[in-house]
Amino acid sequence: MNLRRLKYFVKIVDIGSLTQAAEVLHIAQPALSQQVATLEGELDQQLLIRTKRGVTPTEAGKILYTHARTILRQCEQAQLAVNNVGHILSGQVSIGLAPGTAASAITMPLLQTVRNELPEVMVYLQESSGTILKISCSAVSWIWRYCTSGRRLPVSSASRC
């Protein structure tokens, strides 16, 4: 069993037709049929039921289809991960939050976004008064401080509140 045959098999099941799958895959239909026959021989199972209307997977075919999709997706993810070595943001970020500010309302959406889009970044939250956060700002990457003027100021401007 190899990845190319699994890719072919998944495409056939997705489309429901050997002929149309062959066109999409840019392979001759007899060659595609031979690839399916080889796969069926390797597994000693019939994988597709061929009819005049197209093909449908057998029970064994449905099981293989589920696993093949997972395998192909994992191969794509592995290739992407290897290609992105050195290009992915990773590391630790500390975020300081002053209690009673609007910052607490964005905490969960922020953490969910970071987890989904930057899985290699570890976020640490620190909740303290604005003064304590300013004192420890060398250990905090980003501070949300609510000033009496209602403006959000950068860390370097926090003393103007």
TrEMBL record:
Establish whether keyword Ribonucleoprotein is in the entry.
no
Q: Which UniProt keywords apply?
A: Activator, DNA-binding, Transcription, Transcription regulation
Show the Gene3D superfamilies listed in the entry.
Winged helix-like DNA-binding domain superfamily/Winged helix DNA-binding domain
Could you cite one Gene Ontology molecular function of this protein? DNA-binding transcription factor activity
Q: Which residues does the UniProt record annotate as the domain HTH lysR-type?
A: 1-58
What the entry lists under PANTHER family is as follows: NITROGEN ASSIMILATION REGULATORY PROTEIN NAC, TRANSCRIPTIONAL REGULATORY PROTEIN NAC-RELATED
Give the similarity note. Answer: Belongs to the LysR transcriptional regulatory family.
What's this protein's name? Morphology and auto-aggregation control protein
Species whose genome carries this gene: Raoultella terrigena (Klebsiella terrigena)
Q: What gene codes for this chain?
A: oxyR_4
